[in-house]
């Protein structure tokens, strides 16, 4: 009996590995990542992610592979516990999703962002709001209970521009019910991690609308929440209308691989050119929030 259970558990992983190490997938990843070490790191990371998610093991292996590859030109790790990006099962296919820390990271890389905040708002902490000017005043010392009433995201650019977005719990639920197919059915990431998804959604809304768009950030907006099938064709089942990317003309596998490779090289070049030490930058060790110089 123990052997039978082991075989059932190992079956999906054996199938996944056999396709991942097949000639087609290996040639594709070699075209995208020229350095053997980078390919090895990607393969190790992807296998670990799939091994720890039984629902992902039920997806078509090449769908998972292509969804994970979307993280490569963005330089975001796909281990969901790190909070940057994740590969999420969506029926028999897989979806690439950028998480809270990933959006902060991509916004900071533009070089135009001075400070970002993204917090849960409890009862009493929203002191004042002006829907006409978009100004909000929050005070954590004014908290009257642990009841969550909403979620906020704030950005300040180096040129002095600043903007706050605030959604109530009800607005977040309405958004999830309207645009998340799994939440409507009572399961999925919105159901299991409601606060985290609300924080990410409000933050993404802020960044998409008000953050300067680097080429890297534009690609992230296009690829986030894309559901990729085994033939590397993407759809956007859960995206809101204003986030819906335009359909992309079909390309050959080689053309797609070359495009991803160019994006990876461009990303490396931008980072190399703009790598400047910022002693005042850091991260909140409790929340994981990344922030810049606040002077």
What does this structure look like?
It is globular and about 60 Å long. The longest helix has 22 residues. With 295 residues, the protein is of the alpha+beta class. It folds into 2 domains: 174 residues, no CATH class; 102 residues, no CATH class. β10 and β11 form a beta hairpin. It contains 12 helices and 11 strands. The termini are far apart. The protein has a 4-stranded antiparallel beta sheet. Strands 3-6-7 form a 3-stranded antiparallel beta sheet.
Task: Compile the SSE list and pairings.
Elements: H1 2-20, H2 23-32, H3 36-51, H4 54-57, H5 61-69, E1 85-90, E2 93-98, H6 100-109, E3 113-122, E4 126-130, E5 135-138, E6 148-157, E7 162-168, H7 169-179, H8 181-184, H9 189-192, H10 194-210, H11 215-223, E8 226-228, E9 234-235, H12 253-274, E10 282-283, E11 290-291
